[in-house]
Amino acid sequence: MNTDRLDAVIVGAGFGGMGAAIQLNRLGYDDIVILDREDDLGGTWHVNRYPGLTVDVPSTTYSYWFEPNPYWSRLYAPGAELKQYADHVAEKYGLRRYMRFNTTVDGARWDEDSQTWLVSLSGGETLRTRFLILATGYLCQPKTPDIPGIEDFGGTVLHAQEWDDAYSLEGKKAAIIGTGSTGVQLIPKLAEDVDELTVYQRTPIWVMPKFDVAFGPAAQRLFARFPVTQRLLRMSSDLFMDLMVTIAMWKFRQFRPVNSAAARIGALHRFLAIRDKGLRRKLTPNYDFGCKRPTLSNTYYRTFTKPHVHLETAGIERIEPDGIVGRDGTKRVIDTLVLATGFDVWESNLPAIPVIGREGRDLGKWWRENRFQAYEGMTVPLFPNMLTQASPYAWVGMSWFDTVEYQMRHMNRLLGELQRRGAETFEVTEEANARFLDRMLTLLDDSVFHLGDCVNSRSYWFNSSGEAPLFRPTSIRQAVKEQDRFPLSDYAIA
Ligand code: NAP
Q: 185, 302, 390, 427: least surrounded by Cβ within 10 Å?
């Protein structure tokens, strides 16, 4: 084992991990290692390369506040531009020197004697570090559905998260399983290329109109020369997103009509795209808007009106070597199967690696036996000097950057205090953690998750106990403000 003590090990080289590294640098820490199992940085934007991938939050909002990018080609930028942006940030802030790729972390354990974390890597190496930062994301464990016969399918299987760019879809008879945000982006693109496309939908998704605009060279020059112009645009997209989520989801009790208005916009969007009543009905969600991640598309619904695109909603009975048999007995012969079946958020994630804290507390086990919980969505009792980003009650708003940036503020205040006191460790108190959990649960009482009709939504935002502990049900502004004010006495600092 390398006995040198690092300042920090960050697990995950996506935007979360990079934000954490930038914050550590600002605080003067430089002995940092960022580990990632992939072969390059960017997290989800490195892994996802499927056709039609774009960011589904305005790019003006989906970026670090401190690093605006004047060169987005559109309001909803293509995925490749997000990867370029990640590369740019890593370059500008000198983060690549910290990164080790193709490195899988087996687990981490707090060592009481040395007051450090021991991080085990799959090759047998162990790193010793003062701070441990889990930046693995909520959506990092792609799911292959457990459908009978899937292993014996004789054609080509394309996973959305492992897209094979070399595979030509021209002339293919394809099927896609999954109509979440990924499916909604992929389906119109697939339909452009293949001869036949069958979409297997289990739960219809809310699809809203997308008000997208291209940013031509003139707009990009304007943003670059007068950054205030882009700031103003960002402030409006931030405010719109924040208000939508806060009012339609978290303040459902007080603003139910706003949620209903959003649902009516979705219904109008369907009505304008699809004349066939039966088809429209099949694509109509039977749960409230906001129970599950809504998505944006101006092409999704129209795609189903094309003669070579078929929608199957009876469910899948089995997959055979040459096709898919539905529960209604219909068989579709296919040569290409596309899986847009989402991620395992609850079983193999949260945490994404085994983490053992003080007194042998196993984070995953403790969360499952005592409810998912994390103070300010970041710290957990008996896990000293550990910050976890994709945690219970951490996710605020719809842009991941909102979460990353309020967490950077939390780090700034907490680690700054350690430095002022010349202290070595922090650990959130049980009392502060319980108080925060209580507050989150009370806030959720007003949300669409509690008061809306979410029974049929099959939303990954809910766990198997029917709780929805991923989101911090507050506005983004409030989450940000609180990070400059949380009582430092909520931590034992030693
Ligand atoms: P998802 O929302 O979990 O959707 C998975 C889809 O697969 C659902 O339609 C699900 O049906 C279906 N499915 C899963 N197992 C199935 C089975 N055994 N049989 C039939 N259908 C099955 O996953 P996602 O679309 O990848 O999106 C996940 C999240 O990623 C989004 O919510 C969003 O936060 C993010 N995302 C962002 C972007 C972007 O910004 N560009 C793009 C894509 C995704 P059920 O609904 O019935 O379970």
A: 302
